[in-house]
Write a structure and sequence with these properties.
Shape: globular
Oligomer: single chain
Helix content: over 70%
Distance between the termini: 13 Å
Strand content: under 5%
Number of helices: 4
Radius of gyration: 14 Å
Length: 110
Amino acid sequence: MWKAANLLLAFLVEILALGVFARWGWDIGGTTATRILLAVGLPAVAAVLWGLFAAPTAKRGQVPRWIVKVLVFGLAGAALWSLGHPVLGLVFVVVVAANLAIIHTQKLQP
């Protein structure tokens, strides 16, 4: 149960980060075309980087995995902050950090 709950939380914050990038891209874009491009492009770039380096099946090693995780989740927290939700951004980063620490220390990788 513990493993499943933590892995589910990890998946949910990954999906939430993609949603935050989409919202942030929409908000920072000027024209409608730019908004659409950023709202689709930013999550796509994050998803590709995640798949290549941070996914459980990625074969790139531990250092790139942690760099990508810190970048994706840190930037998602910063994006929440810049969207006018500083407390939510901080809570997001703290929850992610706690979840990653639990997964790492308890060796809960799928």
